[in-house]
């Protein structure tokens, strides 16, 4: 792909958002970034990667820090030092990595408020993938056969709540709200392959425009 486009994918748990992102990246022949962002951020901040994975996509819990900085800490620098909560350090470092990766080449970025971090990008396609609860339950059950039905619902609700809190905290916007994205897609309607094809078609249209 000669021209550059950045595709960000926010997703409900169990909607297949990551798998869709992988397919989109494969079909368009561009890079995919997800967990790699944690590794790179941890390396840059000399942070323990095992610990940062626990903090990934979780909002900071420091009330004093929140009051001091407001709900949006993007744009701050690391001179706050050791007193800055780990979650905030990780968010700032990941944001720097996301911007650098997006500047280099076309890519698909999964989660981590990338749609907000890259809001000034010229060719940006912001996607939110959701799904019907029964389809999401089935996907989670297939991935985690050890979980009972009630546990699956609990995992779905808690994961979505965590992602929502993270996004809302760091952007000041509302996770899943339609006007924060260019397209919201129900993957239960189109399926994984169909959703990926639709996103690719939209990306090509943007590049042609």
- Helix % is 40-55%
Number of domains: 1
Secondary-structure class: alpha/beta
Number of helices: 9
Tell me the radius of gyration: 17 Å
Uncertain runs: 59-82
Write out the CATH superfamily name. P-loop containing nucleotide triphosphate hydrolases
Average pLDDT, rounded to a whole number, is 85
How would you sum up this structure in a few lines?
It contains nine helices and five strands, in the order E-H-E-H-H-H-H-E-H-E-H-H-E-H. With 209 residues, the chain is of the alpha/beta class.
Task: Describe the structure in your own words.
- This protein is α/β, with parallel strands linked by helices and 209 residues long.
- The protein has a single domain (6-208), classed as P-loop containing nucleotide triphosphate hydrolases (Rossmann fold), CATH 3.40.50.300.
- Helices cover 55% and strands 11% of the residues.
- It has 9 helices and 5 strands, in the order βαβααααβαβααβα.
- It has helices at 17-28, 36-44, 49-55, 63-69, 86-104, 114-117, 133-143, 149-171, 187-208; strands spanning 6-11, 31-33, 107-110, 124-130, 183-186.
- A 5-stranded parallel sheet has the order 2-3-1-4-5, with helices on both faces.
- α1 runs parallel beside α9 and α2 packs across α5.
- The radius of gyration is 17 Å and the shape is globular.
- The two termini are 15 Å apart.
- 35% of the residues are buried.
- The model is unreliable at 59-82 (pLDDT under 50).
